[in-house]
Amino acid sequence: MPNNAMTMIRQRVSWLLVAGVVALIFVSYGATPAVTTALLASTVRQSTPLVLGALSGIFCERSGVINIAIEGMMLMGAFVGFLANVYTGNLLVAVLAAVLMGAFMGLAHAFMSITLKMDQIISGTVLNILALELTGFFYQQGLTTQGKLTPVRIPVLADIPLIGPVLFDNPPITYLSLVLVVVVHILLFRTVWGLRTRAVGEHPKAADTVGIDVIRMRYINVIIGGMIAGLAGGYLTLEAVGSFERAMTNGRGFVALAVMIFGKWTPLGAWGAALLFGFANALQTQFQFLGISTIPHQFVGMLPYLLTIVVLAGFVGRARPPAAIGQPYEKE
Amino acid sequence: MRKRTLLFILLSLLALLLAACGGSSEEPAAGGEESAQTTEETSGGEEAMTFKVGLVTDVGEIDDKSFNQSAWEGVLRAKEELGAEVDYIETKDAKDYEENIRLFADQGYNVIVTVGFALGEATAKMAEEYPDIYFIGVDQFQAPGTEKPNLAGLIFNEDKAGFLAGALAAQITKSGKIAAVLGTDLVPPVVAFKEGYEAGARYINPDIEIISTYHPGGLDVAFTDPEWGAATAKQAIDQGADVIFGAGGKTGNGALIEAASYEGVYCIGVDTDQWLTVPEARPCLVSSAMKLITPGVFDLVKMAKEGSFPSGNYVGEVGLAPFHDFEDDIPQEVKDKLKEIDEGLRNGTIETGYNPGG
Amino acid sequence: MADAKIANGAPPTRWQRFAQAITIPLLAVVLAMLVGAIIIVIAGANPLGGYTAMFRGALGTARGLVRTFEKATPLIFSGLAVAFAFKAGLFNIGAQGQLILGAIAAAYVGFAFEGLPPFVHLPLALAAGMLAGAIWGAIPGALKTFTGAHEVITTIMLNFVAINLTDYLANGPWKDRSPGNIVARTPAILPSAELPSIGVVPLGLLIAIGMAVLAWWVLANTTFGYEIRAVGLNPAAARYAGMSVGRTVIASMAISGLLAGLGGAVETLGIVGRYQPGFNTGLGFDGITIALLAQTSPLGVVPAALLFGVMRAGANQMQLYGVDAEIIGIVQGTMLLFVSAPIIIRKLFRLRAPEGGEEVVLSTGWGSSG
Predict the structure, then answer these.
(1) Do A321 and C91 touch (CB under 8 A)?
(2) Other Cβ atoms within 10 Å of A3 Cβ, number
(3) Residue B26: exposed, middle, or buried by beta-carbon count in 10 A (0-12, 13-18, 19+)?
(4) pLDDT digits over C22-75, tens only?
(5) What was the pLDDT predicted at A4?
């Protein structure tokens, strides 16, 4: 059983790594508590849109539909959420508007790639381009939002040193993203619905023969995926920044795609990967803060993308996507 | 059959469209009905009477709350006060700089304002080609020996503006730690602001702790990433920085808005009085390190009209924006000190130490 | 079905096939412009006047024509790059990265190699651009062959890497250190590396059209081209027939990258005159739309790119007329939607689907090539 042995070794290595990271954090906290806290808080913050984007991708791809339109879905969600905030001043309404816009983008993607059987990558490209151009055209300067989502301290928990300020003093969508990681994990691996989703993504024919409606399953999943991407967009305009700018997603949707692959299409894995990417960004900033500039920042900047290639290429454990991904389903 | 009819209609529509443009290009004066108005206005017989000012933006929008907008406001002032006829073109592709300038030049414009250091080469070339037109190049340094009589570079000592901002920051910080969140170091004015800011802060307090960061991305993202700006500002605030200098377009604005949600944290804007352009940042915005582009552009247009156009470099004013809501919070001695530094920077007794190109 | 069988009676003539091939793109262009017109109306401007200004600006004068050609040239290259990869069943989203690397490589040869005569220097600079693009394209090809990593993801990632790399070079080792320059850019290329124009036609455009013809010829008339198409249509069958799928994938991606890199080189040597970050933005991505508008035909890429050239060249006139130039982006996006979902157009106009038409299918799994 060499395979089993390999898996065991890999698991041990993973746990050792996690233990190492935790130990490092404690040492670092002992030395410079403020900097360590700031670094980790920034890590969580920068990982939030990535983990949401990755969850969006997981919903779509687990059911067999490639989603490279996360970027466009986020951007549209961000824009519509922003507009809703400007005109209603109600943040809850604005978040809902962002999510609804995401759902609509998901529906469009589903319609093109499932019903019209368009190539899924092309469908995603169409959505990305249209999102960029439409938001650019209709955005006008001078619109001012009416506030943004602010941190909610969770009593008692927030007073724990290090962990408190990092995890329990965050704004709502950040909490929601953490909850979603767990919820999606349970949904995907512990419920009948998740089993069906995965079946549709792996063996649609087999799923069909046992009576699962493949088309319907895919539609629902892609729409939910769109909603989460819309939420990620809402996070940008309504929680993180409090304003909109043209093309403000700046490739985060594509990084989310990388995060999803990095996390091997699992919510927990994606969360870990998003934290890693967020940490890399935060560390990059911290290096500059400290005046360490021996490495040109462009090289630090390209690191996450190189890492993704490395992971995807299987140099660090093979990333295997759902088997039926990308193929339109033809009922016989 | 229905498909054929529809196809036919569409194709004939297309043909019509093509014919329409073909026709109008043969007789350029006629044009479409709507465009006839603009053509008449711009190339009609009153050319000698009207004074026309055109503006070409850098890649970006005219309403960018930053230098494009400030320059355009200067042109608009020329419209009001000098009765100039004005128009602008937003550049969408960096390779169009020359062409967009030409568009105005060929329509008999008297003054053409080009905004941003990136247009420097194109502007110089066009100034040579059109010696009868005055060119104003905002942020375009004219190297000694290359000056042209009909081209003035409106330049600013950003390092001095940054110096004042740094001096202000060092005097209002309580933690002794200040930060700067910047666009990319690929763009010279940003570097000048940063170096000036740090020098100004150290001038007040040599032991001050300054943490500053450039955006790690390329030109295409470095100025349009408010989320990075915000996250970076938070990271700085979390480790004790209580003054944030945001210098880098939308990225910097993100940092300002983020700082606004913390008690006891101040922020300083850049380029224009951001009190007016980023109202979301008002709770923390003590001032802005300004380049007075609007009056600079207006003055140069006016000089062009009066025939006293300066060639070479025309150094525009820099300074701090009004304190607005913080007028009463800033102690008088801080204001006096800033005034003293401002004078020192002007008469050369204080130097920022910034050396571009070095 | 019965209908189709009757139509099948006689094989379609060349002309019929051609007509069939251009119907969808043509209708897509017209429909997209109509959609654009509606949006212009919503934005409160006059679409007919706007479009007229655009066409007049792009085609009405000799200089407009030059600009149309100049704008179209890099788009032909990037469109060709994407289309060529499509033929092998590969989706090259990385044309942008390959193009900017080609651009900076050509710039480097252009400014650094002094004392060469033009007939050596210019080809050398072009070759450098091709090589850089080909390498950048071959990497995802090799990754796909040897590890199964899907080229869509790897090319997206390599785009980001390429931007960082070129920014570093243009602001670091290859920065223009001439006195007075503080901008991130390479020095200007030497006159001996400049790509000239013949009258109103830039030489780059002729190279681009030449490459389109060459690509078409290779695909249609050579064994290699046949292998590429076979791999694109059905890799498993191609493998069964004894072809080396892996080698074909790598070669196709390398050629795709080469075309994009050459586009960057032509842009540097013919238009920009140096490498400067921000001067090649979006060219590679437009290649996707153009390739699809051309129905992945290398020859079709030329008119598709020229159409884009017209829109770009006329954009500033349209702006002066009072229509926001961003409308062009919307028109192009809508165009992409209509060509890639031909069923929408077929439904609208009650067109029949072509018999055995080649629909582009690429999404054959993310991580493994099977």
Answers:
(1) no
(2) 7
(3) exposed
(4) 888 999 999 999 999 998 998 888 999 999 999 999 999 898 999 999 999 999
(5) 67
* Helices within chain A (DSSP H only): 2-31, 33-62, 70-88, 91-110, 120-138, 163-167, 172-190, 192-202, 204-209, 214-234, 252-262, 267-289, 297-312
Residue B17 lies in a domain: no
Return the amino acid letter for C38. I
Structure tokens that stand for C50 in this block: 């706007």
**Residue B355 located in a structural domain:** no
The answer to whether residue C122 scores a pLDDT higher than 90 is: yes
Contacts of B231 in chain A (CB under 8 A): 42, 45-46, 240, 281-282
Backbone angles phi, psi at B244, to 5 degrees: -115, 125
Q: Provide the residue ranges of all domains of chain C, joining segments of one domain with +.
A: 72-321
Tally Cβ neighbours within 10 Å of residue B4.
Answer: 10
| Nearest-angstrom CA–CA distance, A296 and B217 | 11
Render the burial of A210-244: b for 16+ CB within 10 Å, e for the rest.
eebebbebbbbbbbbbbbbbbbbbbbbbbbbbbbb
C-alpha torsion B267→B271→B276→B281, nearest 10: -20
Dig out the tokens for A187 from the structure.
Answer: 């949904």
Domain range enclosing B134: 49-156+292-317
Is the same domain home to B176 and B256?
Answer: yes
pLDDT band per the 50, 70, 90 thresholds, residue C220: very high
| pLDDT tens by residue, A129-139 | 999 988 988 88
User: CA nearest B213: which of B243, B176, B185?
Assistant: B185
Determine the distance in angstroms separating the CA of B243 from the nearest CA of chain C, rounded to an integer.
Answer: 29
Beta bridge partners of B85: B52
Of A116, A313, A326, the CB nearest to C149: A313
Q: Which residues pair with B113 in a beta bridge?
A: B55, B136
- Do B213 and B235 belong together in one domain? yes
From chain B, pick out residues whose CB is under 8 angstroms from the CB of A34: 238-240
Cβ pair B214, B183 in contact under 8 A: yes
- The rounded Cα C345 to chain-centroid distance in angstroms is 24
Q: Are B70 and B294 in contact (CB under 8 A)?
A: yes
- Decide if pLDDT at A297 tops 80: no
Domain containing residue B93: CATH number: 3.40.50.2300
- Residue A316: per-residue pLDDT: 55
How far CA B246 is from CA of A122, A197, A207, B8, B102, in Å, comes to: 39, 46, 55, 58, 35
Q: Give residue-wise pLDDT tens across range A154-202.
A: 888 888 888 888 889 899 999 999 999 999 999 999 999 999 999 999 9
Same structural domain, B328 and B180:
yes
pTM above 0.90, yes or no: no
Mark whether B304 and B236 lie in a shared domain: no
Q: Which CATH architecture has domain C72-321?
A: Orthogonal Bundle (1.10)
Q: Which helix (H) or strand (E) holds C1?
A: none
Bridging pattern class, strands A152-153 and A169-170: antiparallel
Number of domains, chain B: 2
Q: How many CA atoms lie within 13 A of B228 on its CB side?
A: 31
Q: Give the Cβ contact number of residue B347 at 10 Å.
A: 8
**In what helix (H) or strand (E) does residue C201 lie, and over which residues does it extend?**
strand C201-202
* A326 has a chain C CB within 8 A of its CB: yes
Q: Are B54 and B189 found together in one domain?
A: no
